[in-house]
Amino acid sequence: MNRPSRPGCPRRPRRRTGLRLLLTSCLLAGLALASAACAQEPRPAVSVLGPWTGDEEESFETVLDRFREKYGIEVDYQGTTSLRETLLAQVQAGSPPDIAVLNSLGELTEYAHAGELVPLPDEVRERSPLPWAPELTVDRRKNTYWTPVKVDLKSVVWHYPDRSARRGAWCLGMGSGATSGWPGSDWIEDILLQRSGPAVYEQWATGELPWRSPEVREAWRTWGRLIAPGGSGTQAAAALANDFQGNDGKGLLAADGRGCAREHQGSFVRRLYGEDIAFVPTTEAVPELANGRNAYEVAGDMAALFRDTGSSRSLITFLTGDPARATWARAVPERNRPFFPVSVGAYGDAWANRAVEETLSGAKRLCTDASDVMPPELRGAFHRAVLEFLAAPADHDLLEGLLEQLDDETRRHHAQNAPWVPSVCAAPVGGGS
């Protein structure tokens, strides 16, 4: 190792004591420089909080490994199923992660208006398409504050190819380790989108259309008729006891006498089944919802910057690039392959994967999950209302009471000037108009 040369000392004649002190100081300074040169410089690090655990975390770590190798930056990833609570606690403690990944646009909107988020770098903003990443006006400035890392298609019904998607009992499971009730809110959102169109859907999702409007009320009633034909609530009641993944974690879709034959669920459900699973749009599985709009509900996992550092900017830029997406796509079995806002090519031959990509890119309108867009308290009230509704889906008085409560909650947020996501629906990148 080459020792750094000792710095020169200023000449101070006549005073031997002063000269001796100066020489000692210079020697100590030289030793300090030598020690600094010998010490190994710590690698910069980025902390990331996200929703992926288990095998999903393992595949994401493959992407992070490529980043570590390329940039020499360490990444500390923490995956949790209690994302909202963990992030809120960290923010309140003044120690948020550098980057957080979450699906709630309503939560992200609140964090942005509270000054907790950093606007995205220009390169990332350009890769952050609608409807997943709308611009927000914060302090009279328009900026984009989050970017979709991966996305999912909704508005589809899964079935086995040898069984019709138009017949058979519905697979229903309202339980979830995170927030129970969302499989039901997905149903209501999709029905409203297909019956009333993207414009009405967006008005409702952004708090402008009352819950007791005829369009929203009819969406709930339509779902009640689908899951409780003839007024029987047996199947609906059973959904309250079922996890959306099946209580054995192997999925609800009928295989060996499970009692249901078709499932309304997002594209992530493929990971619970074999490669022979197929889907059709909800509008084909439920004839009364048929229309020519070619509109789909979508969801996504959004990355946002809570700390503005060179390392955090490098990582969020990397995660939205094609090389990282291609690495992620190759790192997992086909049935667990992630989807992105734009295609990065076909990795594997599973029919469902190709069909999902073609549906996302070929739609005329994509609309983000409405409950993900709502303020967190309203989102939670919506999910709870779904669970209460399932106790008696044919009870009109019960429904009116639930809708009134949701209208009250919406008014409360408006009275508090709570921020809302400004837009929900858009054409896909390179898609319809």
TrEMBL record:
InterPro entries: Bact_solute-bd_prot1 (IPR050490), SBP (IPR006059). Coiled coil: none annotated. Keywords: Signal, Transport. It comes from the Bacteria. Pfam families: SBP_bac_1. The keyword Signal applies. Residues 1-39 form the signal peptide. Belongs to the bacterial solute-binding protein 1 family. This is Extracellular solute-binding protein.
